[in-house]
Amino acid sequence: MTIRNFSNEDMPYIQTIVDGLHPKWFDDGAVKNIPFDINFQKAYVADVDSKVVGFISIRSQDGKPYIGWLGVDIRSHRSGIGKALVAHVQDLLVAAGANTLRVETVVEQDPPDGSYDLTVKFYKSCGFAIEHVEERKTADGFKFSMGTMIKELGS
Predict the structure, then answer these.
(1) Per-domain residue ranges for the chain?
(2) Per CATH, the architecture of 2-152 is what?
(3) Is the CB of residue 54 less than 8 Å from the CB of residue 23?
(4) Helices 11-20 & 28-37, crossing angle to 10 degrees?
(5) Residue 80 region, left (φ>0) first, then alpha (ψ -120 to 50), else beta?
(6) Regarding beta strands 129-137 and 143-152, do their DSSP bridges make them parallel or antiparallel, or are they unpaired?
(7) Is the pLDDT of residue 117 over 90?
């Protein structure tokens, strides 16, 4: 596996990954926003045998680095690709002098479907901890908790 900078030629592969993760991990808003966001965030792809099987983007908010988007082809889940992508951006951030990395994700929802339990478990396995939780509710009554998870870098 090679992790390299995103290029515009990767977008069809990323769209296929996103579509495969919809609606369990990516909602309609994510499907719409990822192709736009990834062009304005710093993005990387995981390439296996000349095929993009995962992607990650990073963004900055108030001088703090965040994971913008992370997706791995559903057929390649639990193969280490997601962890390798996270490790790659961590190394880049440490080299740039950053000491933390954050990610915002749903940490709880009602009714539960288990998908975000796996997301939180994944980030915890990468060394992230929940820093902050905010309760939210959509116009149609769907309740969820949006969490910010943080990892101390260089430790």
Answers:
(1) 2-152
(2) 3-Layer(aba) Sandwich (3.40)
(3) no
(4) 160
(5) left
(6) antiparallel
(7) no
